[in-house]
Predict the structure of Ribonuclease T2-like.
Amino acid sequence: MLFELLLSHIFVGLALATPQIFQRSSLLSSGCSTTGPQSCHNTTVVSDLCCFEAPGGLLLQTQFWDTNPSTGPSNSWTIHGLWPDHCDTTFSQNCDPSRAYTGIGNLLSSNGASDTLAFMQTNWVDINGQNEQFWEHEWSTHGTCMSTLVRSCLPSGSVTGAEAVAFFQTVVRLFQRLPTYTWLANAGITPSTTRTFTLSQLTSALKAQSGFTPALDCSSGTLNQIEWYFNLKGSIIDGTFVPIDAPKAGSCPSSGIRYPPKSGSPTTTTTPPTSTTTGAPGSLPTKATIHALQSGSSIGGLLSLGTWSTQTLATFTLSGTTSSFTMTSSKGNCGVSGGSFACGSGVSLTSFSAVSSGSNLLLASGGSTAFTSDGVPSGTTVFTVFTGSAHAQDYTLSIVAS
Ligand SMILES: *[C@@H]1O[C@H](CO)[C@@H](O)[C@H](O)[C@H]1NC(C)=O
């Protein structure tokens, strides 16, 4: 009882300490209560495993700090996955090969989860640039072992792969609650080529910020991975993740731990999704969503009227080549007039070009990839997109094949 009170108290602390929680509802609803037993804490056998995660009720949200080569934004850890360990820390893998879905990027974008996909392209990235294979591996290896995501638990009529869409949405939401980089930085622990840290410096800083002790893994004395542990009330789709202290230590030594910087800047290193509708890398897709990239993060993108929003992104039709093309949306022609971008029935087409930047294909108007707005969108608040840099919020627009 005391333990439970303590947990709920600390959990409130964790929620408050977390700067950005993306309020994004799952497309699926499990219909499960979140007031039932907490996974790994039941005292009798629970028969409905659609609403109670078992045997994998000890959930690990794993994050990478990859510096060789550097992967992802320089000021953020990246997602490895969400793993369902048994309550005793043993685990199962590859539980249902019949649901080892491929084409995760397309599955997400065609099921209303383009915002999740855009976030993954920046923050759930493979060290060799094979994002699609990495995502497929994480789903098939770990996701298919989650009892609350088996097909028979889903609402009837759910599309094939709906549970995988829910898995990726949940992992992204959970990761957004766990800003490891920021928590360390708040305690004065920032990447360095010269400093080393003790394990207790790192874990006590993270415990002070988050309320819980994670496990830290090292490779040759260099910090490389973190495991944040949870139990779950309800379903992976929409249940409550209850943070807990790591039940076992990671592989880091007790002292002399290096936390080296990633190369580059906090600007994004997104990789576009592998798509069946694009040709060679860098070629212009005919159908695309357009994502806004700002300070290393992907924040929403363009709606069909051409405004910047964090709502579900519009699909644009592109005609031409990367050196000159026009765009339309469901609302009509897209164009720039008087320095602002819009799409609609009264808009005249203007020509755009696309510029490769790293692995992104950026939209350019008049040869410039700079776009700007008066604010950052959230919820139903959207902003007009202007060309140039005259307004308060600068960003670039990345063309992602859909
Ligand atoms: C908790 O529920 C799971 C799933 O039904 C079961 O395997 C396990 O034995 C239960 N634990 C206890 C202590 O009854």
